[in-house]
Design brief:
mainly alpha; rod-shaped
Length: 102
């Protein structure tokens, strides 16, 4: 380590802008605890958001209404693809033996 003429060590800085005393300054225990508390709170909020989004993504889709099923049949989804969709999501009405509102 170099020693200056006055006997002190040279002041290092990042790009000559920020003196090292900013980074090496002793901190009060209360200041450290507050910074830790803020960081911990932030991390807990991020974790809660991640878990909430994962739970939301796994929700079962809503069942089809009678009007939606009728419109699917009109639009040409009365074959196997429409049947698979209805089996996956279900329906929220009681089917009748009649032709309905087609």
């Amino acid at each position: 380590m170099q020693v200056l003429r006055n006997g002190s060590a040279p002041r290092l800085s990042i790009f000559g802008i920020i003196p090292p005393s900013v980074f090496l300054s002793p901190r009060e225990p209360r200041e450290v605890a507050m910074r830790f508390r803020k960081t911990l709170t932030f991390l807990m909020m991020v974790a809660a958001l991640v878990f909430a989004m994962a739970a939301w993504a796994q929700q079962k889709p809503k069942p089809f209404t009678q009007e939606r099923v009728v419109s699917m049949v009109r639009d040409g989804f009365g074959d196997e693809s429409g049947t698979k969709l209805i089996e996956q999501r279900g329906i929220d009405f009681t089917p009748t033996g009649g032709t309905g509102a087609v």
